[in-house]
Amino acid sequence: MRTNDSMNEKDITPKKQSKIFFYLDRINEFIITNAKKLFIAAVVLFVIFSIFALYSSFQERKIRNIQKEVGYALLAYSGEPQIAALTTILETAPDNIKASILLPIAVTQQNLESYVEAEETYRELVAISENTSMYTPAQIGIAFNLQLQNKYPEALVVLQTAYADILKTKKDDGAPSPFETTILSLMASTAEQAQNTEVAIEAYEALLKTNPNEQFVISRLIVLKK
Q1: Which of 95, 166, 94 is nearest to 137 (CA)?
Q2: What are the 10-residue block averages of pLDDT along the chain, 226 residues in total?
Q3: Rg of the chain over CA atoms, in angstroms?
Q4: 2 backbone φψ class: left, alpha, beta (φ>0; ψ -120 to 50)
Q5: Are 162 and 180 in contact (CB under 8 A)?
Q6: How far is CA 4 from the centre of its chain?
Q7: How far is the first Cα of the chain from the last one, in angstroms, to the nearest whole number?
Q8: CATH number 2.60.120 is the correct assignment for the domain at 159-226
């Protein structure tokens, strides 16, 4: 983690941001299908990136100190002590950085199986992060939280809303938006769990447009269309 005084917004170029979003997108795909620990790791990376992105000259010292405090809390604590440490930081944090602290709080609550508290935190995050880079991860978090409780129909509704929001801001060049393939993958698998074959097929077909040679998607479409 870089913390020297010379860092500013120019350190993160559009090219670097594009690469970061690509790898975060890949990580998120593995999160749901493979391991909860990968989800937490992706959140840590996303939190660090978001804090860097909000780095500005007039808040330089305060943001840098919060960055250190959040990083320390994420690495030094786990469970309830981590939530307590992050909540304390949140109380004095500027509004434009609160989303970066709420996200790991929600994930830790989720990891403790405190699903009601986690959903409340995720929804608070959604409410304050619209039109920011945290908005879609917050929606994914709500859906994942519902999936952990086997509430697949409710999770599907959240994912469909998230996908609709992504389409509203999608560029005309046809390139996938950040998290688009993640949302579609989650929509497809969640729709299957919810026994909503129609939505599952629609999601897999949309995925196929982003990667026509994806054999897993092709195989699932064959099965679902029988």
Answers
A1: 166
A2: 44 54 55 55 64 57 82 92 95 87 93 95 93 89 93 96 88 73 93 95 92 89 91
A3: 18
A4: beta
A5: no
A6: 27
A7: 51
A8: no
CB atoms within 10 A of CB 46: 21
Give CA–CA dist 206/202, Å, rounded: 6
Instruction: List, in order, residues 6 or more apart from 48 with CB less than 8 Å away.
Output: 1, 67, 71
Q: What share of the chain is helix, strand, coil (3-state, %, to 5)?
A: 75, 0, 25
Give the C-alpha distances (Å, rounded to integers) separating 123 from 46, 84, 115, 138, 183: 18, 19, 12, 7, 17
Listed in order, strand segments (DSSP E) in 90-197 are none
Structure tokens at 161: 């809303």
**Nearest CA among 68, 148, 138, 53 for reference residue 104:** 138
Q: How far apart are CA 94 and CA 209, in angstroms?
A: 41
The dihedral built from the CA positions of residue 24, 25, 28 and 29, taken in this order, carries a sign that is negative
- Quick one: CA dihedral 4, 16, 138, 213, positive or negative? negative
Q: What ranges do the domains of the chain cover?
A: 7-149, 159-226
pTM: 0.70
The DSSP secondary structure of 166-193, one letter per residue, reads HHHT--TT-PPPTTHHHHHHHHHHHHHH
